[in-house]
Amino acid sequence: MRVGILGAGQLARMIALAGTPLGLEFIFLDPSADACANKLGEPLIGDYNDPKLLAQLAERADVVTYEFENVPAEVAEFLASHTQVHPAPKALAIAQDRLLEKTFFHDIDIPTPAYAAVDSLESLEQAMTTLCYPAILKSRTQGYDGKGQSLLKSADDLKSAWELLQGVPAVVEAFVPFNREVSIIAVRSVSGEIVFYPLSENLHRGGILRVSECRADDPMQQQAESYVSRLLEELDYVGVLALELFEMDGHLVANEFAPRVHNSGHWTIEGAETSQFENHLRAILDLPLGSTAPVGNAAMVNFIGGLPKTEELLAIPHAHLHLYDKAPRKGRKVAHATVRAESREQLSELVKKLAALADQVDDS
Amino acid sequence: MRVGILGAGQLARMIALAGTPLGLEFIFLDPSADACANKLGEPLIGDYNDPKLLAQLAERADVVTYEFENVPAEVAEFLASHTQVHPAPKALAIAQDRLLEKTFFHDIDIPTPAYAAVDSLESLEQAMTTLCYPAILKSRTQGYDGKGQSLLKSADDLKSAWELLQGVPAVVEAFVPFNREVSIIAVRSVSGEIVFYPLSENLHRGGILRVSECRADDPMQQQAESYVSRLLEELDYVGVLALELFEMDGHLVANEFAPRVHNSGHWTIEGAETSQFENHLRAILDLPLGSTAPVGNAAMVNFIGGLPKTEELLAIPHAHLHLYDKAPRKGRKVAHATVRAESREQLSELVKKLAALADQVDDS
User: Fold this and answer.
1) In this structure, are A36 and A148 located in the same domain?
2) CA dist B279 to A248, A274, B137, B190, B202, Å?
3) pLDDT tens profile B249-272
């Protein structure tokens, strides 16, 4: 069985590492000959919309999936008309457009921050007559890790924020004074079997995820499961989906969803009975889904922009290193470490040590 | 950092899968272009004693290791004189010759079954005047999975057993009426750091390992650690070493040791904080060794000669499949499954289910 993946970055790499012991083979389409998953399968090197390469991918792969949501609609449609693609193009189309995404959340009764569509300075000014400051202006598409976003503190910020977007359609949303950020990783198979991981509690800095911690028995688990179930069912979704949420005083508000394996679920490699990567594969191949039960108390720390010395990291008890084989570069995720501990207290200490190492090499 | 491995079978494959997240690259020397680790690194295809390939391996790898003990002495010596090789040739030389091995155990006060060297029918007859029946005649070299062994029930069996060996030097040893078979996996790094895994309790059938179960807090742990420590220190050993032992009424008797990662340690992939494969790499690269603490109650079941249907296996809760990407063939190890459970009782039930699947496809 051969799995095709659009993209050959670290998510594809971790999918391939999880799938190799299941006897799966991989074929990747990525513009970069150096993409870090390439060594773990057969690389097709070229643009994501190269018709020849897409035809090869569709022909050679038994099922196609992807590691990012910004797949051009025509590419997703082409692949879906030639082979099995999971998740389906509809989920991609919604996830890659913040306005469609928020509208979809609204339509299926998942709460979101107040928001409005913006396609001109006038419409932004108009929107801010009903939304309160501070608010955030975000491009509808292509945003990730905080890119394409501006904080609006007062009416004085509107013109410069809009100009920064260079005319691309946008959405403005109320800033949510959240208590914490969480995400739920859920999986739905071709047959409709659904499993949920325990909530991840996430810490961002500079718009980039830094630390995720598994929160078994979190009081918000049930509410998160109810929202993400609705997403999975309404989209007839197949694969792993990550829903990012803000918690405000015991209520969850949806931020965005990712139709793929997700950075906030990397702790599942060691910290769950079955990793998100293996379960994504099981889901798209219609195999029984694996248990999502937590294994100990687990957390993950991202390494951004630089790498710690391997010997320093591995000297931290229970630390597991996951290097992505990517050249360090400002703001680039180059590795993560997961850690499992017997108690929450021990976990906090280990996370502090890892985060200190991460801060030393972080140039962002 | 590039690690060279002599052999590209399932052990090399699992080493490479463990090492890829550590940012390591691999180069394999194996006679078979289809060897199952080849896809996870750079394959050198040819004989183990091909001087050109060995020179390439020595030049391109920062450190060389192997997945089997039957490396010709001149190959091990050649590599050791050109690059770092772990474990060192001495451990190989001893492990590949049952007489040297037993003599070495004897010299460092590790108990063994009574034994004698055999190089003719006369010497076999002579030996059996002091050893009791039943006894086992084994070729000194090249034996694995019960190959090259004959059970001697009475003096009537001596001639035919000797003839079966076709004149190769042998060793005859007393049959040990053991209560159980166990093994201990130990690791020693270049710096001399040593860690031990909890004992594996092993079930063989037809000379082939079928099931290994992690026995945390086993009363024999300390005795096993004391014996294997002696081996590691006396050999100035670097890497993973597996010592197979018989237990008779609270005493351990050494059967043999393997100077490499070992089938009875495959449960460590999911069942220990750090797998034997990762710790072998940490040891030979002189990195801090990882914790060997058990994670839940873990066991492993081998699939010999045939493969279960993936969907049937993955439907067993907590089962983790490790396919070796090898064509099924009589008596050939083609996969294993590990399983973790919260209690020993639950573990027993899950092992029974896995073993039933294994028996269905087993043609041996």
Assistant:
1) no
2) 44, 22, 35, 12, 21
3) 999 999 999 999 999 999 999 999
- Interchain pair A318, B291: CB under 8 A: yes
* Residues contacting residue B305 through CB under 8 Å, at least 6 positions apart: B328, B329, B330, B331, B332, B334, B361, B362, B363, B364
pLDDT band of A166, cuts 50, 70, 90: confident
What is the longest distance spanned by two Cα atoms in chain B?
Answer: 58
> Which tokens hold the place of A121?
């300075």
Answer yes or no: is pLDDT of A364 > 70.
no
pLDDT for res A146: 61
| Contact status, residue A319 vs residue A337, Cβ threshold 8 Å | yes
Mark whether B320 and B205 lie in a shared domain: yes
DSSP secondary structure, A205-226, as one string:
ETTEEEEEEEETT-TTHHHHHH
- Residue A145 has what pLDDT? 60
Give me the CATH number covering residue A140. 3.30.1490.20
Closest chain A residue to B18, measured at CA: A17
Q: Which residues of chain A have a CB within 8 Å of the CB of B22?
A: 310, 321, 323
Cα–Cα distance measured from residue B87 to residue B232, given in angstroms and rounded to the nearest whole number: 10
Distance CA B133, CA B257 (A): 24
Q: Which CATH number belongs to the domain containing residue A34 in this structure?
A: 3.40.50.20
B319-337: per-residue pLDDT in tens? Answer: 999 999 999 999 899 999 9
* C-alpha to C-alpha distance for B293 and B167, rounded to whole angstroms: 46
DSSP type of residue A278: H
Q: B41: exposed, middle or buried (C-beta count within 10 Å: 0-12, 13-18, 19+)? A: buried
* The pLDDT of residue B95: 94
Q: Is the peptide bond between B43 and the residue preceding it cis, with omega within 30 degrees of 0?
A: no
Judged by DSSP in three states, A36 sits in coil
Q: Are B36 and B13 in contact (CB under 8 A)?
A: yes
- Mean residue pLDDT of chain A comes to 95
Instruction: At B30, give phi and psi (nearest 5°).
Output: -155, 145
Confirm whether B169 is domain-assigned.
Answer: yes
Residue B190 touches chain A, beta carbons under 8 Å? no
For residue A341, the chain B residue with the least C-alpha distance is: B273
Is residue A146 left, alpha or beta, with left meaning phi > 0 and alpha meaning psi from -120 to 50?
left
